[in-house]
Design goal:
With about 130 residues, the protein is mainly α. It has three helices and no strands.
């Protein structure tokens, strides 16, 4: 009987400890989601319209908004994960687009450098031919 009583007390104590840890982790998770939501809200507001007036692509803004909505809903782990996945895909698409534009700018700069060299050679040749002898 003593062993049964001891094991019951041990089970109750373990349950109490696990319940307390669960409560603490849920509060920490809620604080984390609140902080992420606040950060997303300020980040989207800050970079939504950049210095040049260029707005973020709508798919990224939509993904961030879906993420904010899923974080706001209580107990929506699957929805949050799906929204994070959508946001990651949208950001990856933006990165690919930016890299393509950077390559296009590099190509334009290379072409401009070639044209500048050709123009410099032409002007030097013109200067030599028109110089008084």
């Amino acid at each position: 009987m003593g062993i049964s009583f001891s094991s019951s007390l041990f089970g109750l104590a373990g349950s109490l400890i696990l319940g307390f840890l669960d409560l603490q982790t849920n509060q920490a998770q809620n604080r984390f989601y609140t902080n992420v939501e606040d950060w997303l809200a300020t980040t989207v507001q800050e970079i939504g319209v950049g210095a040049g007036g260029a707005a973020l692509p709508s798919d990224i803004v939509d993904a961030v908004e879906r993420l904010r909505q899923s974080i706001g809903e209580a107990g929506s782990g699957k929805a949050t994960n799906a929204a994070l996945a959508n946001l990651a895909e949208a950001i990856q698409g933006l990165v690919h687009h930016m890299r393509a534009e950077q390559q296009m700018i590099r190509d334009w700069a290379d072409e401009q450098a070639k044209l500048n060299n050709d123009l410099r050679r032409f002007l030097e040749r013109m200067a030599r031919e028109t110089a008084p002898r």
